[in-house]
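Re: Re: ligand-bound prediction request (bumping)

Still looking for help on this. To restate: I need the protein modeled with iron/sulfur cluster bound, output as structure tokens. Inputs repeated here so nobody has to scroll up.
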Amino acid sequence: MDSQAKHSRRKVIKIGVTALAIAPLAGLSGRAFATQNTAVRTALKFQDHPNGEKNCKVCVNFIPNKDKVNNDEAVNGCKLYPGDTEICTHCYCTGFVQNAAATKAGASFSPWAAPAK
Ligand code: SF4
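Reply:
Sorry for the wait, this slipped through. Here it is.
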């Protein structure tokens, strides 16, 4: 094996090791940024304000962000929006289904206090 071939092989190994070292960081940065599922948002006519008394906070599909209890920000999820992490409690879409527990509890209802299903 000549020195140029050895050098080339070393370079390939170095690139592979670098890629392996960076891979976990790429995963972290993907989680650090919020994302929107624009296809589902369009299909279900997502809006950033309620429709009368109907809003994400009292919808059975709402997935509250456990790291931000009682927030009213666009940092939550929804069962109908895979990968979307920007659902707010006061948002609304045509996928809305009233949460029976919210109806029963009234104004004191908190999706963070409700048992996970
Ligand atoms: S289905 Fe629509 S209204 Fe219900 S939580 Fe998801 S985005 Fe909000």
